[in-house]
Amino acid sequence: MMASHSGELNNSATYFSSFANVNSTNKHTVGGTIGGRQQTWQPWDYDQRLKVAEKVDKYKKRLKDPEGKQRGNVTKCIAENKSRQEFVPPIRQVYMLTCLRQSHYITPIMHGNISL
After folding, report:
1. pTM over 0.90
2. Fewer CB atoms inside 10 A, N or C side of the chain?
3. Which secondary structure element, helix H or strand E, spans residue 100, and what is its range?
4. Vertex 113, ends 44 and 51: CA angle to 5°?
């Protein structure tokens, strides 16, 4: 539910984690951690997500049927941008509040203390 309200693709996307840039290629990394640049995966940067959403919006406007037959092209564009962000969250404050309520996940992630 958090993914749909935050403008993200669902959890079957190439980048399936709402919390960090874990993807289908590196998901089997044993002992991987989420944290800073030295960690295996990094938390998503909100401003970067907005930039990708803008790129995706421009790309979709060039297509004839982005929600139908060309949907695969849209998801490929998102994956090529190393993201899962399709559009800007409709209500940023609600999205941010959702993240804060999930702080038992967010706090350890921001400090690099989560191991997968």
Report:
1. no
2. N
3. helix 92-101
4. 5
Q: From residue 96, how far is each of 63, 101, 112 by CA, in Å?
A: 31, 9, 20
Q: Record the tokens describing residue 3, joined without a space.
A: 């993914």
Per-residue exposure over 36-73, b if at least 16 CB sit within 10 Å of its own CB, e if not:
eeebbbbbbeeeebbebbebbeebbeeeeebeeebeee
Each residue's pLDDT tens digit, 56-80:
999 999 999 999 999 999 999 999 9
Domains of the chain, by residue range, sit at 2-115
Tokens of 107: 């706090």
| Strands 33-34, 114-115: pairing kind | antiparallel
Rounded-to-integer distance, Cα 112 and Cα 43, Å: 9
Q: Are 2 and 96 in contact (CB under 8 A)?
A: no
Cα–Cα separations (whole angstroms), residue 76 to 62, 88, 106, 109, 115: 15, 18, 28, 27, 28
* Distance from C-alpha of 79 to C-alpha of 13, rounded to nearest angstrom: 8
